[in-house]
Amino acid sequence: MRQNGHTMKRFLVHWGITAVALAAAAHIVPGIHVSSLPSLLLSAIVLGLVNAFVRPVLILLTLPITILTLGLFYFIVNGAAFALAAALVPGFTVSSLGSAVLGSLVVGLVSWILGWLLRPPAAASGQPSS
Fold it and tell me: Could you tell me the pTM of the whole model?
């Protein structure tokens, strides 16, 4: 039973981190707008689902062009996944592919920093957590 509580806590923390990162992207990147807190929270969930299910397919389908561009096309794939999430959520808008690419970079960077700052102490020292 403890494992289920731990899993739920990790999910909620990850969801919160994604929501904060998305709010930062909306604040920093021109062309990204989130109209309300409920839209922000729903956008964070949809972005996670798109990244989990759609982006891997996009990565596989675009692998040849990604190789030809020495990996730079991967930024476009991330931007496309970000724009898809915006298209699916009312109140979350992205004005251009450029804004989507920059937004995905900001969300990734802010999520990484917050994840690093909020990691459990055992993970910080390299010790396995129980």
Answer: 0.88
